[in-house]
């Protein structure tokens, strides 16, 4: 009986593992599709913006500068702060360089790519859904599903195997009952 229950549990765990693998693959493909759509829409927007005017407006430059300050870390050695938060001399110099590059007509993507090529991908504050990052995005959900599945299986098995308690229908003997009553009386007298 116990062996059969273990086989039953193993089969359920295998099903949960297969579902987790399928979920991970689906989430990876969805993340890749979203990234491709985002790149396509950004390139269409930048093409539309470049067709409208070659000289960027000051408000547009400030908006793009704010976007750059949010997605890049300062290389000054601070505790991994974005340019938006960091106000050291290095950060201020980079902000001036970024504003000048945006005024010269470079896009946010070009500036970001050049910056990350120089300093490395660890200075990007945005985790892109590619490679190992997909695993980082999906693992909390996968872990929750696995833990929930194990809890469900264990609880269900414990309910199935739990014997009903048998009630003892025997009466207390007269001698035991008298002894209990006398001890109860002694306890009452002490208090």
Q: Explain this structure to me?
A:
It is a single chain. It contains 6 helices and no strands. It is elongated. The protein has helices at 2-52, 58-71, 89-103, 108-119, 132-161, 174-190. It has one domain (2-160). The longest helix has 51 residues, at 2-52. With 191 residues, it is mainly α. Helix 1 runs antiparallel to helix 5 and helix 2 (58-71) crosses helix 3.
Give a concise summary.
This protein is mainly α. The chain is 73% helix and 0% strand.
Q: How do the strands and helices of this protein lay out in sequence?
A:
Blueprint: H1 2-52, H2 58-71, H3 89-103, H4 108-119, H5 132-161, H6 174-190
Keywords, separated by commas or semicolons:
6 helices; 191 residues; mainly alpha
Distance from first to last alpha carbon: 54 Å
Largest sheet: none
Low-confidence stretches: 51-56
Q: Indicate the proportion of strand residues.
A: under 5%
Average predicted confidence as pLDDT: 77
Query: What portion of residues is helical?
Result: over 70%
Order of helices and strands: HHHHHH
- Radius of gyration (CA) equals 34 Å
Kindly name the structural category: mainly alpha
Tally of separate domains: 1
How many helical stretches? Answer: 6
| Cα shape | elongated
